Amino acid sequence: MLYWYELKKLITAPVIIGFCFLCLIFNGLIIFTSDKDGLADVQVDTTGMTDIFDGFDAVGIIAKRYIDRHELSGEYEQNVIRKYEKLQPVIDQKAERNESLSTYFGANTPYFHNLLFKKLFRAMVAESCLLALFVALMSTGYESARHTEGIIYGSKLGRNILRTKFFASLTAGGAFFVVIFGVSLLLFVSRFDLTSVWNDNVSSMFNRAVYEYDKPFITWHSFSVLELVWASLGISAGVVLCFVLLGYAVGTLVRSGYGAVITAVVAIGMMVVTEPLFPYGSTLRSALNLTPVVLWLNVGEWFTDGYADILWPNFECIGVGVSIASLTAMSGLTVSYFRKRDLI
Q: Is residue 44 in some structural domain?
């Protein structure tokens, strides 16, 4: 009964519903203002074309480019080289399977791919994360805002309500995630006909890495378009869970509602501004790419080799796993502290 009461407070809050509605309008604008004429009836014949991965030298082409561009040397240079030495067998397998001969949307592939996997996914992940953060902060700060903290949490039994608040926040965050992604992707497939490309490989010769139009789109594993959508949804859900945990931990630790919001904003900002302080190829910079906020910023690079600041294969999976574990531990510590502190 208490769980449903807590959940109802979150999913019926006018400010939350209004923000969710605005997010859907924004996503609709992204979708319906995008050009689709170039994607209609694309006919590409790859017969006789050469597989771009045949004889492709990852170290000599990609690693060397990054090393020269950022003037890397010593440990940083070796870190980048080691990454692309690990990628080379993957590229050789792609050549054996002729993955690059997949047509996708032909010459219009980079436009479409970036529209879906970078622009729209970045918007959907950001919106879902903000909603998850809001509901967690609202749930944990509800009693403080109404000056009933002393009454509700005055007993050991009352402080156990935090567990209920966590599950209510988790459910509400998950529900808004489903709404944002479900409605937005439904609008996307209603506007763009993807039936001919669902099974095409995303490492098509026509595709390009994010922000690098002279570099192929190289994934650590073989993905069709549909498979990459599902995989990206999984990582997106993990990032959203991170923001539920962040909001829950901050809201439990900081009694003031405004203080909790400011603390959360500072924590998010620190994740963004700290990463560029370290050089490309450094382990520290690569580790900072595993934080939830930077994972969101790198959404278009998920499952790929990424850039020179990403050193580990499957960085998005590592990042989500490490972030969830860290934030879960932090949430547990804040709850333990809350149960022992004096609220008077």
A: no
